[in-house]
Amino acid sequence: MSIKIRPAERINNLPRYLFAEIDKKIKVAAEKGIDVIKLGIGDPDQPTPDYIIKKAMEEVQLPRNHTYPPDEGLAEFKLAVANYYKQRHNVELDPQKEVCVLLGSKEGIAHISACFVNPGDINLVPDPGYPVYSIGTMFAGGEVVSMPLLAENDFLPNLSAIDLKVAERAKLMFLNYPNNPTGAEASPEFFARVSEFARKHNIIVCHDQAYSEIAYDGYKPISFLEVPEAKDVCIEFGSLSKTFNMTGWRIGYAVGRAEIIEVLSRYKTNIDSGTFKAIQYAGAEAFNNSAREGFQAQLSAMYQERRDVAVAALQEMGINVRAPKATFYIWAPIPAGFASSADFVGHILEETGVVVTPGRGFGAYGEGYFRIALTVDAKRMQEAMDRIKKALANR
Ligand code: MLT
User: Which CATH class for the 9-38+293-393 domain?
Assistant: First the structure.
């Protein structure tokens, strides 16, 4: 006789991951023979650059790399991250104490709440936002209090709208600029205000910087750590996934105040055994030789061409959309006549085979919007836009 499977309460409350759900719909459409254009998940369509692959292949062959990686992370990778911060952001980091290697930034973001949040504590979470901020909070028994990101505030949270009692109970504040899903950017003045707020209320700022290297029109995204004294209150998460087309490699990092990094590292050494050494060497190579290869500039130029195609087409359809200065996402209001973002996205998939993400998937304040990921070339993007335009005209 088989036993009764009784998942924990936290699992009973756990939705399926937004992009896993979308993947299921793509599979169904593809099985029906529909030519699907995937503008859903932010997964780069281009390969990892050759210079990184070459380094990984050399390192994979070395038996010294086949053993457990060092608990504290590979010194060469942590040094490469620290050097990147110095060169790119003029921020000094101690590679030993202020850098932690992650199995992708998603992993660190998911686990940071377990490190600092007791049941009943509050985390301040942007809405719309990357779903993992809330999921990690929930796993730790914490309470999510949303910080609405509204168009009228340029998709920045309004700090003065945060209830003082909430601020006193808050342990972590998640932020993410350049922002997923809205494509918004943050100014040094805004980060300085956040830093002051966090110091006043004893809150750790968890800044997700996954899109810092994809930017347009001469804009250079800043690190939260560029703000004077920000390191005192901050852990910043970075990823090689979008920066170097390495989503499948699962490597990222966290940097910031040594005591915060120490807690996350201690937690992680108890539950995972680190990233394969060959991948950490390849990650170090990615940073060390990115300027020589001119990779970042090429990447942004490629996405900019796609962005321009999509924005022009959406505007032509009468959709009031702003061209983002960074990220590879376009955040657009759903056209009139649709009951919800899910209704619009479902209609578009059915009628055109184009997959976009419903804004509601990123939180209640995402309702009324949809997100386009710039993950197909300009020609295919034009094709996607033509199909949407036709579907809307025939409605
Ligand atoms: C996104 O599309 O928002 C992200 O790429 C999803 C992820 O990183 O899991």
Answer: alpha beta
Rounded CA separation 65/279 (Å): 9
Structure tokens at 121: 């504590």
CA of residue 25 to ligand 1 center, whole Å: 17
User: Tens of pLDDT along 140-183?
Assistant: 999 999 999 999 999 999 999 999 999 999 999 999 999 999 99
Calculate helix-pair angle for 277-288, 75-84, nearest 10 degrees: 20
Which amino acid belongs to residue 209? Q
Of 329, 299, 335, 303, whose CA–CA distance to 317 is shortest? 335
pLDDT tens for each residue of 76-102: 999 999 999 999 999 999 999 999 999
If 0-12 CB within 10 Å is exposed, 13-18 middle and 19+ buried, where does residue 232 land? middle
Partners of 143 in the beta sheet? Answer: 122
Residues in the chain: 395
Q: Which residues line ligand 1 (CB under 6 A)?
A: 19, 41-42, 106, 130, 180
67 CA distance to ligand 1 middle (Å)? 30
Nearest atom (ligand 1) to Cα of 357: 2
What is d(CA 199, CA 354) in angstroms, rounded to the nearest whole number?
Answer: 45
The CA distance from 46 to 288, in Å, is: 20
* Sign of CA pseudo-dihedral 344, 349, 352, 357: positive
The residue whose C-alpha atom lies closest to atom 4 belonging to ligand 1 is: 42
For strand 369-373 and strand 357-358, is the pairing parallel, antiparallel, or unpaired? antiparallel
The predicted-structure confidence for 257-286, as pLDDT tens digits, reads as follows: 999 999 999 999 999 999 999 999 999 999
Distance CA(139)–CA(88), nearest Å, equals 35
Instruction: Return the bridge partners of 204, or none.
Output: 172
Domain boundaries, the chain: 9-38+293-393, 50-288
Distance from C-alpha of 127 to C-alpha of 111, rounded to nearest angstrom: 20
Q: Among 16, 26, 43, name the best residue to mutate to test ligand 1's pocket (greatest count of ligand atoms within 8 A of Cβ).
A: 43
Q: What is the CATH code for 50-288?
A: 3.40.640.10
